Amino acid sequence: MSNSKDLPLAGEVAVVTGAARNIGRAIAVALGQQGASVVVNVHTSADMAEETAALVRAAGGQAIVHLADVSQPEGARGLIDAAVAKYGRIDILVNNAAVRRESRIDELSWEQWREVTGVILDGAFLCAQAATPWLRKSPAGAIVNIGGLSAHAGSSGRAHVIAAKMGLVGLTRALAYDLADNGVTANCVVPGLIDTVRGHSATGQPSHHGSHSTLLGRRGTSEEVADLVTYLCGPQARYLTGQTLHANGGAYLG
């Protein structure tokens, strides 16, 4: 069982935003496999969220689903309140929720800009702020923000995504400073060229993926990203904070 004391995250509680599928789902399952109870957050994809929670349980963990728009203060607070109401604590926060619609700068509307930056950057800030009192109480509090390759390598049609994802790098460093006195760590994991399904094109992949290749000659998996996130949340990573770690097979050497 996932609550066995021989698992590194036994007894801990993790909140994972944007966990309906792909990397978010893989992170939720990996944390559950390591003993954490997982709060699976989505905005509207309730059925997919329930599938994620079922996979966490099948892996031996505990899980609940909470629908919330984390780009809004009341949504973020409600998510954290639901986690505490169910499990009584929060030890891990993974800010994965994102919207990645593509539009060139001369066609990018203010509404599109705010939608993307609101979910990615505002959502991470609001969730971290709401979770901070509980993370400070944890003996091993950890925040992991999920960045993006295009924020570092550049791309067309993604000014809003790039600005928001690079903002996560700065937010991560600020959180590392603000929370260090309580031993809470904050790090950013940047996936790149991961084999996921997204609705950007006929291929289901972002357009900038076509202009990059990996040194290892293959795309990564969501599970490989999840393994890195889980490591950063575990006892072996307590001396890592404020860092940006790239998982991209050598597509970008940061």
User: What general outline do the C-alpha atoms trace?
Assistant: globular
CATH architecture: 3-Layer(aba) Sandwich
Uncertain runs are: none
The domain tally reads 1
Distance between the termini: 39 Å
In CATH, the homologous superfamily goes by the name NAD(P)-binding Rossmann-like Domain
Largest sheet: 7 strands, parallel
Can you walk me through this structure?
This protein has 254 residues and is α/β, with parallel strands linked by helices. It has 7 helices and 7 strands, in the order E-H-E-H-E-H-E-H-E-H-H-E-H-E. It has helices at residues 22-33, 46-58, 73-87, 110-137, 150-153, 159-179, 222-233; strands at residues 13-16, 37-42, 62-67, 92-95, 142-146, 185-191, 244-247. The radius of gyration is 17 Å and the shape is globular. The mean pLDDT is 93.
Features:
254 residues; alpha/beta; Rossmann fold; 7-stranded parallel β-sheet; 41% helix
Compact summary:
With 254 residues, the chain is an alpha/beta fold. It has helices at 22-33, 46-58, 73-87, 110-137, 150-153, 159-179, 222-233; strands at residues 13-16, 37-42, 62-67, 92-95, 142-146, 185-191, 244-247.
What is the strand and helix layout of this fold?
Blueprint: E1 13-16, H1 22-33, E2 37-42, H2 46-58, E3 62-67, H3 73-87, E4 92-95, H4 110-137, E5 142-146, H5 150-153, H6 159-179, E6 185-191, H7 222-233, E7 244-247
Parallel strand pairs: 1-2, 1-4, 2-3, 4-5, 5-6, 6-7
Helix pairs in contact: 1-2, 1-7, 3-4, 4-6
